Every structure is written in C-alpha cells, then in structure tokens.
Amino acid sequence: METNRSNLDSEMELPQDFRCPISMEVMKEPVIISTGVTYERKNIEKWFFSYKKKTCPATMQNMQNFGVTPNHTLKRLILVWQNSHHSSPSSSSSSSPLPSYKRDQMESLLNTLGSSTPFKVNSLKKIKEIVESGDEMKLDFITLGGLDVLFQLIVQILLDCSDFLVFRACEEAFGVLQHLIVSEDQDDGNKVIELLSKPECMKSMSIVLQRGSMEARVYAITILKELAKTDFNWNVMVNEQGMGMFKSMLELASDEVSMKAGSSALQVMIKVLDSSKKSRSRAIEAGAMCTLIELLPDSNRSKCEKILLIIKLLCECADGRVAFTEHRLGIGAVSKKLFNVSEMASKICVKIFSLICSFHPTDKVLEEMMIYGAVKKIVVLLHMSGPSSMKNKVLEMFKKHGNSWSRYPCFPGELKEYLCIHGH
Fold first, then answer.
1. In DSSP terms, which residues pair with 26 in a beta bridge?
2. C-beta neighbour count of 216 within 10 angstroms
3. Within 13 Å and on the Cβ side, how many CA atoms surround 147?
4. Which residue among 18, 67, 173, 244 has its CA within the 20 to 30 Å range from the CA of 332?
5. Buried b vs exposed e over 52-75: b needs ≥16 C-beta within 10 Å?
6. What is the DSSP string of 376-424?
7. Integer-rounded Cα radius of gyration of the chain
8. Whole-structure pTM over 0.90, yes or no?
C-alpha cells in the first residue's frame, strides 16, 4: 500500500508543475521570469514581445523586468519523468492505487479546505488531479460535499477580492469545477449546474474571466462552454457582468497562444448572444464588432464560421449594423470570405449582406458592396438551380438595389434584363 501511495503522489503532483501555465502543455524549454513563475519559452516570449503584455500571466503582477532564465533543474526533472513514464507503460496500471485510498485522500483534503489553512491552493490542485482520474472520483467528490466546499471558496472573492490567496483559491476551485460538468440529465450533473446557476457563483466566474490568470480564464471559459450545451439561463451574467464578460471573451478569442480557449470563447458568445437581444447590445458596447472583423481575415475555417455567425447575430440589431458598416474593413472582410471558406460560411455571409441591404442600405454601403466584389459574387447565386432561401435573399437584394448597382460599368448587362423581367 505504501508503494501505491508513493506512485499516486508521483503521478498527481509532478505533471502539474511540468505544464506551462499559459498553454497547459508539458514544457520543453522551461524558463523563469522575475515573478518566480516558470513558463514554456516560446509562450512567455510571445506574451511579452508579440502581445506587448506587461504582467505575469499566472499572477497578473505588473512587471518591469522581462528577462527570462532557463530553468535547467526543472527541464532535467521533466526529462526524467517522461523517460520513466514512457519506459514502463504497464507499471502504472499494475501499481495504480486503490480507489478507496484516493477517496480517503480527497476527504482529507476537503477537510483541510474547510479550515483556515493557508495552503488551500495546493490542496485544490491535488483534488483536481484526483478528480481528473475518472468518473468514480468525480462522483465521490460530490458525495463528500465537495460542491459546498468549492462554493464557499468561490464566493469568498466577492467579500475580499483584493486578497491574493483568496483569489488564487477561487481560481483553483474553478479548475476543479471544470472537470465536474456532466450531463444535466443526471442527478450529479444537475447539482453542478445548480451550483453554477447561483448568482454569486456567476459573478465570481465573471470576475475570474476578467481579472484571473490565463490558466484560470481557461478554466472559466471551459465551464461556460459546457454550460452552453445545456439549457442554461445567462441573464445574471449578462445583466451584471455583460460588458466586462464580453471583453474578456473577445480577448480570449484574439489569443493565438491558446487556440482551444479562443474557440470555446466564440462558442460561448454564440450561445449567449442567441439567448437575448440585450446580450447583443452589451457585446456591441464591448467592441465585439470591431474585434471580430479584424480577426476574420486570418481565421481558419472553424473560427471563421463562428465569427461570421456572431457578426450575423449582432447585425440583427440596429446598433450592430451601424457598427458593421462604419468599420472600414467590414464589408470587404465578409466579401472576401464569400465562397472562399465553406458552404455554411457563404450562407452566413449572404444573411449578413441581406440584413445590411434591408435595414441599412446607405449609398456608402451599396458602393462598398460593389467595389469589394460582394455584388459580383452574389450574382452567381442567382444561377443556382431550384429555389432556396439564399437565392431568394439575393434576388430580394437585387430587386431593391439593382438600379443603384446597375450604374457601375462592371454590373452584368444580362442581369439588367433579368431584373427588368421581374418588374425593375
């Protein structure tokens, strides 16, 4: 049993220290910065020198010295751990600790968290790694009253947000919670969702999303992404933390270091924006349209589709259409994606242009659609065989604005005749 306990401690504690706090991947070239935190070299250099950040991602402390020092000791430890871990794949299964021991250790750690110990962060990290080991441990955690313990730690920052240890404990509590989201059809899943639905919990998560370390913000957005798969009520978060929440999600969406977190942020935004028009107004106030348009040109297919869908949702509001048309790259960026990404993306592009042409058809808008090639591209859709909603939207645009576009030399002559047949 002692050997089993030794193996458990090794497996639980070592990998956590070997992961970069930014990417959460095992480090290959660990370096220490002036705050004493170790990061993967390429990630922290990108944070400082590409994104021009002047804070430590893990602690959010302001920094003056941006030098990095190789952490040779940690690198050697990582190599030793990797060699031993990969050289004996069967040893972990043969010496894995009994679930009862894990349960006992988790119960002990939860009791520690209920006291006034200053080591809550370390206890939470150990609990997180136990919970990660399997569904049985997740159920044990809930049975042992773990959710109530987490709730107390999470809401503590509402009382004392300036206390660094209180804030870090809250961050790690969300780190545990991200592994507990299960189907809302199950009783335990309902308990987790019930906890997260409490206004205090949502307020705390919004604060962490806005002010937490990169790792903690990834925890928060992962939780929100899982909640987006359920019938979750977003009103508390939108009403009380709307602008700040959207700014944080947009910052994550713009982050090239953690692509997964960025994708999750966009997915959450789609769900929240689809839930109410009020949320769209908050997102527009947070500068969502400007940020998304500027992200669009360099986005891959999946990210592009999500961004276009959010732009479409925002354009369903008058303020969103104004923000889109006033951005100098708006029409050009969407025009470029039409037919160049996917069928889904093209359909969304047409919907965006349909909304703009129906509710905000200024001379400037119509001119830019012609100049940037949007009109030339959507003409192609008129030649589609059979009826379709996309074709109908295009036809409606030409019926309304064909006369304006026909003044341009590049407007197809045969289309003038086609539109004339239809009453123009």
1. 19
2. 25
3. 20
4. 244
5. ebeebbbbbeeeeeeebeebeebb
6. HHHHGGGG-SS--HHHHHHHHHHHHHHHHHTTSTTS-HHHHHHHHHTT-
7. 26
8. no
Helix H segments across 316-342? 318-326, 330-337
Among the listed residues 218, 227, 194, 206, the one whose alpha carbon sits nearest the alpha carbon of residue 157:
206
**Could you write out the DSSP letters of every residue in 353-375?**
HHHHHHH---HHHHHHHHHTTHH
How far apart CA 105 and CA 9 sit, in angstroms, is: 11
Task: Note the pLDDT tens digit of each residue in 55-68.
Answer: 888 888 889 899 99
**Whether pLDDT at 96 is above 60:** no
Lowest mean pLDDT among 2-11, 14-23, 304-313: 2-11
Q: Which of 348, 1, 389, 24 is nearest to 217 (CA)?
A: 24
CATH topology for 2-91?
Answer: Herpes Virus-1 (3.30.40)
**What is the number of H-type helices and E-type strands within the chain?**
24, 3
The whole-angstrom separation of Cα 24 and Cα 209 is 17
Please indicate whether the domains covering 2-91 and 287-424 agree at the CATH topology level: no
CA angle 224, 227, 229 (to 5 degrees): 120
Reported as a single tens digit per residue, the pLDDT across 308-358 is 999 999 999 999 999 999 999 999 999 999 999 999 999 999 999 999 999
pLDDT exceeds 70 at position 85:
no
For residues 294 and 250, give the distance between their C-alpha atoms in angstroms, rounded to a whole number. Answer: 11
Which 3 state secondary structure label does DSSP give 70?
strand
CATH 1.25.10.10 for domain 287-424: yes
Runs of H (alpha helix) within 114-184: 120-131, 135-143, 146-159, 164-177
3-state helix, strand, coil in the chain (%, to 5): 70, 5, 25
Which of 167, 243, 178 shows the shortest CA–CA distance to 212?
A: 167
SS3 119: coil
